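User: Predict the complex.
Assistant: Input components as received:
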Amino acid sequence: MNSLTHDHQTLLLEASHKNITKAAQILASGGNVAFPTETVYGLGAGVFHEEAVQNIFRAKGRPSDNPLIVHCAEKQDLTSIADLSPQKFSAFHQEFFDVLFEQFCPGPLTFILPKKALVPDIVTAGLDTVAVRFPKHPVALELIRKTSEPLVAPSANRSGYPSPTTAAHVMHDLQGRIDAVLDGGSCEIGIESTVINILAHPPQILRPGSITLEELNTIAEQFGVRFEENSAQAKSKQAPLSPGMKYRHYAPNAKVLIVDSLEEAEAVFVQFSRAKILTGSAKSLVGKSSLNTTIYELSEQNLYAELRAADDANLDAVIVIYDEVLRHNVALMNRLRKAAEG
Ligand code: TXA
Ligand code: MG
């Protein structure tokens, strides 16, 4: 399988058992296949297929100092990639991990763990830790099992652009750059996993996601600790602990503007020839706008699709009214603020 060229055909495969088997063969022979997970589509390569991993960076235009997440189907898959010996991973860490795993896995939670020397440096960008996730999407699980190797998978988008939540998004960004896409429909959650580091004291959330600080702390408190959000550190001059967080992210070509009220949104709206207004609870604004425009509802599930749709429709701006519903969604706002910076 030659994934090196940028001009080969990308197969778009419906995620049938037969096609998952075919996709697994492509991966096992060193190719790149994008596949659905419950969060967003991932661009896969076998973790031990270094060239295929290299191709992921090339296909996405991803900076090589941004490490990848390794996706496993079973807890026992960890033995090939993570060093959980007592010297690296104390009894406290092991128990804490076991309880978090029990509660949230498979699902949208990524753990930073000590890495085994066997894991290629390109996967972890030279760090001595490896990020691991256990996706719950049946297509992802079947693909990992049939490949018989954990799969590295960053989001299957061009670096910097909104993440893909459909196979069409992946084709839009990566057609001709990867071997195949498994089409498993829309992703249920719509934003990427929560990334945590339980090796830190206190444990840290490196990237917010649909598993919240509060949910994680109900477990952490049983261990006498509390998770800390990484936001203060992200703003400081210190090197980010999760290298990927420092780059331009999630940004469409349209300008993304976050405002605090309907009045402000309307004032901004008229400055653009083509714009769209969204908010967390559109229902609460029905009939309140003086403009002849619909206000759309924004959620984790449709965030990236809306940002991409804005570009497809050649909009100049996406205006988001920051309301009570959005105020309570740390993960969505994290992505949106980054999109607004881009
Ligand atoms: O939901 C998800 O996590 C999706 C799906 C496909 O599983 N994947 C995903 O991957 O979002 P990606 O590559 O777009 O984001 C990986 C994040 C980056 O912020 C990266 O810096 C961080 O995980 N990361 C990876 N390895 C790390 C490590 N050893 N230490 C700290 N952060 C790490
Ligand atoms: Mg990404």
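The longest helix spans residues 91-104.
Let me know if you want any component modeled separately.
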